[in-house]
Structure formats: C-alpha cells, structure tokens
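Changelog-linked ticket: adenosine-5'-diphosphate example.
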Amino acid sequence: MRYGTSTKLGSIAKHAVLALGAVFILAPFVQMISTSLKSSQDIAQGGLNLIPREWAAVENYSQALNATPLLQYMLNGVIVTVCIFAMQVLIALPCAYALAKLRWRGRSTVFALVLMCLLIPPHAVAIPVYILLFKMGILDTYASLILPFIISVFGIFLMRQFFMTVPDDLIDAARMDGMSEFAIVWRVMAPTAVPALVAFGIFSVIAHWNDYFWPLIVLSSEELYTPPLGIATFRTAEVGYVFGPLMAAATMVIAPLVIAFLFAQRRFIEGITLTGMK
Amino acid sequence: MAAVGIHAIQKSFGSTDVLKSIDLAIEDGEFMTLVGPSGCGKSTLLRIIAGLEAQDAGSISIGGKAVDDRRPSARNLAMVFQSYALYPHLTVGQNIAVPLRMRNLSMTERLPLVGRLSPKAAGKKVEIDRQVRRVAEQLDIAHLLDRKPKQLSGGQRQRVAVGRAMVRDPNVFLMDEPLSNLDAKLRVHMRTEIADLHRSLGTTFIYVTHDQAEAMTMSSRIAVMMEGDLIQVAPPAEVYDDPADIRVAEFIGSPKINILSGIVTNQGTVGCNGVEIGIQPDCPAGAEVKLGVRPEKLEIAGPAPGRLTAEIRHLENLGPDMLVHLRMRDEADPIVARCPAENLRTARVGDQVGLVFSPGDVLVFDGTTGLRQPSRFAVPAPEKIHA
Ligand SMILES: Nc1ncnc2c1ncn2[C@@H]1O[C@H](COP(=O)(O)OP(=O)(O)O)[C@@H](O)[C@H]1O
Ligand SMILES: [Mg+2]
C-alpha cells in the first residue's frame, strides 16, 4: 500500500506544519495566561516555566479588577463596538444593495471610489477627523469613538460581493410580493447574508475592541477608556511594570473576543469563503 | 381576472433594440404563450408587463386600465420565475404567506410581537394561515409547510413557487420558463398540471418558454417572437398548419419542418430539384421560393421519374413511427420523414427512395422575405399526385 503510506506521510507533514504554525501563534497567549497566574517574584526570576512556581492568580486578577475600573473599560468597549457595528450594518447594507443590484448612472464610478477608499490607511485621515470632531465639540465622548467608523468601506465591499451572488429573480419576486427596496434589503438580503454579516461583524468588533490609537487620541477622561487604554494604565503606575496584573487584565480583555469567535466560527468561515449561499 | 393589453411597447438596452414595438391583446382568461428562441426578448416583455422593467415607449393595460405608473405589486400580478426565487431563509408556509402579509398587514402588524398584542392583527394572521393552508392543500404540498426550500426537490419548489403566486388571487399569472429547471419527465407532467391549474382558476396566464412543445400543448394562443418582433399570434393548430413566416414554420414542430428551395416556372408551378411540383404560388415566374413540408406529410416510396429522390442516411425507430433521415442531392439540409414503422420494414440505410406528398401539404414561402405565399393547386382537387 505505497499509495496509502505516502498520503499518510503527506497528511502528517501537513499537520506538523499547521501545528508548528499554531504553536507560533499561540505561544504569546499561553505566555500571557501563564504570567497572569504567577507572583511577581516568579516572573522576575524569568525562565520558561508555564506552570507557576509561586501562584498568585487571585491576587493578580483581583488587582487587575481593583486597581483600575477594568469592568467599566470593558463596558465602554462593548458600547463602542456594538454601536459601531450596528451603524456600519445600517449604512453598509443599503449601500451594498445599491451597488450590487440596482441600476443607476455612475454606479461603477462609485464602486471604484469605494475600492479606492479601501486603500486609505485610517491613520492618514486621523488629523482631519480629529479637527472635525474638535469643531463639532464632541472630542472625549462616546460619539468621538463611534462616529468616525460608522461608514465601513470594507463592509460595503464585502456585503456587495456577497449580494452579487444573490439571484436577481429573488429580488424581483420580492418586488412582485410588494416589498419596498428597503424591505428587500432588510427582509430578503440581510437574512440570506448572515454568514457574511457574521464575518464582517468579527472583523469589525475585533478591530475596534482592540483599537488603541484612536481612543488614545480623542479621549482624555479615564471613565471613557476602552480596554486597550485601560491595560496601558498599568504601565504608567509608579511601580513600573506590574506584569502579573497586566497580563491578568489582558487575558480578561481578550476573553470575550475568543469566546465570541468560538461561537461564530462556523458562520465566520462560511462568510469569508462566500459560499454559504450556494 | 383581467385582459392584458400591450400597446406599441419598445425597449432597448444600450444600442440593441430588444423589443421593436410589440402590440398584443390578451383576452381575459386566456392562456397566452410567448414562445421564441433564447434572447428574442420574451423575458423582457414579461418583465415590462410585470412592472419590473420600464419600457422606453408604449403602454401596458390590465383590465382596460393603463398600469404604466404602477409598482409591480400594485398591478396585482403574480409571477413564477425559472429559478423559483423562493426566500431561502423562510419555510414553505412563510414563503407562500409573504404576498398576503405584505398586502394585508400594516408595517407594525408584521412585527412578531404586535400580532400577539393586537387582536385585529392576530385575526388577519389566522386568515392568512388559513389561505396558505388552502393553497398548499390544493397543490399537494401541505405536508411540506414547515420545510425550508433547501430541503425540497425541484418539483416541490416549483409547486411552492406556484402556491406563492396563487395565494394572492392575482389578475394575471406570469410565468417565465417555469419548467426548464425540471427533468424531462417531470416537465411533461407539470405541463398538464399547469394547464389544469389554468382551467380550474380561469385566470389569464401569460407563459414564456423557448420550448415549442410546451407552447403547443398548453396554450389557448401562441405568440411567436423573433428578434424583438411578434411574427404570428394564433391558436396552436393554426401556428402549426398555417405559419405566417418561414421562421415560425421552422421553430414550431419537432422534428423540424423540411425546407426545399424551388423556382417558379413559366407555367406558374414550382420546379424543385428538377421536378415539377403541382402548386401555383402567387409569384412571378423565375421567383425563388422555399417549400415547407412537415415530416409526417412526407411518404417514402420507390424512386420513379418525376419524383423527388433522396438517400436514406439514418433510421430512427420511435416504436409506432419511424423517423427517416434523408439526404437529397442539391439540398444542404437533411430531410426528415415520419412514417408508420410498418411501411418501412424493408428500408435500409443507403437506399435511394422517392418522396411523395400532396401539394395541399406544401407551404410556400417567399425566397427572400420568408413570408408565406398564398398558392393554388395546379391540378384541380388532386387526391394525391406523385410529384
Ligand atoms: N438588463 C439587461 N441589460 C442589457 N441587456 C439585456 C438586459 N436584459 C436583457 N438583455 C438583452 O436583451 C435580449 C433579450 O433578453 P431576454 O428578454 O432575457 O430574452 P429571452 O427571455 O427571450 O431569452 C438579450 O439579448 C439580452 O442579452
Ligand atoms: Mg428568458
């Protein structure tokens, strides 16, 4: 059975490569969780022990929760990311529908502009946007964290690509049944696009939950801090770097993302492969 | 129920004229089939009737009233699409209910919670459920109401699509090639079902197909479309026996009609492959004509002087009948004759045979325009002359 052994070898090699990659990606996370459980002496000793020699899990996690209002930061994070995503969907779906399924003069030009906007790095427009928010007088508010991101060209692009695969007949059937164009977007297109929406949601939530740059620029009140800024406050404490509580805070901050991803994983993969509809 | 009037409808996409001034009056309760080759503009015309596409010029009336400025749903038509176009996220029951929910419930009443709070909305929803169930039972899909479209076979999806169209009791049914995604056997079966449905509902049907067999078997009248023009509108038998144009003759009928070329002789008859055919078209001597003879009107006989001869290339046994594929010298296209099988016991591929037909069965078309030419028989009332 030469054929059998060679495919077996091939599959072992494949898995070995994947496992190596996984170790490479996961190592920092494991290190983070391990460090969050260790006492500061243990951490200071260095070494690669994953199991703490001296446990300080309770101390680290309670210090992370007490020294800074971490739960408040996480609540801020939830408010901001949920609002951003909701508004992005509210705007991107009708836009994507118009770009994919309606015929109007200038459609291809507008779509080209959307593609061009994909190329603009967010940092390039940070200062104009900052000035705009300043003139509007809403710096250092939730609005300043949310408004700049409610139009997601990536979302428009992704949803447009997905809507292209929805058959025209389905839309015509909806029109015959008496749906308005907006009803078609929300009652026909959105439900068929759930996998793409989940994928977009994960991209969007991760990006804005983890965003450090923008909140740092627009916020000055600590009670509006989002999780990444909150974690950073550990660094500025007089004691210098307190790794244990810092890693405990970091673990708590990414936990919701990991859990959410695990729940949405199947849909997410359907969404990026864009084959969920066939 | 309503009559549909199509008045001077024109449509072009960019520089291509897809519909060149179409006029058609469809009577109340009629089963009208638009038939023609792919790309001739049938779907475009149907979509204009439905209001899904705007015409460039002309007007559509339904029940005598112009509907050009009405949205598709306000025209109260129902459409069955080739791909069925069922909502993939809704169950069969919900799919069928959509047109009623959209028409009978207000925006707030459609919200799930309001239905429970408002007795009026709840009453309407019960009524919708009742109608959905009635239609489902009529179509024999009541046991599928809770399934999603993905879990249905092609034939079942087809029925759901018909159910969604029926439930709102439309003025007119529009169907765009509704059978072409089904396998051959089911397609033949569904023809009968749709014809039955038309009989029992008595509603006007406008049915689009590129399949001439569907058109012939189901319709009250057939409208043959070619390249954006209607070239003949008539009952199936008339379209078959009395085509107005050579393109109609060639499109309708399977196997295809045989076309021979001929020239009008000085006596006014037609010479074809050196044989004189006893028919006198209204054409000047020397004019080129095309002669059309249906395969079942051709008989195979022994070769004889003054008789068209051809060589048998292939024999196709259909059971009771035999299709004889023939090649005639000087004719580019093969000739097909459909004869009772028992007449051909001795026929072999390669045989030279004579072709026999009655001049009364010959359709004469103008050689350049393709229009049908009226013609008389050269010999008064012949029983059967062997040309
Ligand atoms: N939206 C459109 N844009 C451009 N051309 C179209 C459009 N719809 C149809 N056409 C063209 O119009 C012609 C007729 O199409 P259609 O009505 O779908 O034909 P049929 O249904 O008879 O096959 C075709 O040549 C097709 O390419
Ligand atoms: Mg078509």
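Closing comment: Example verified and attached. The radius of gyration of chain A is 23 Å. Chain A has a mean pLDDT of 88.
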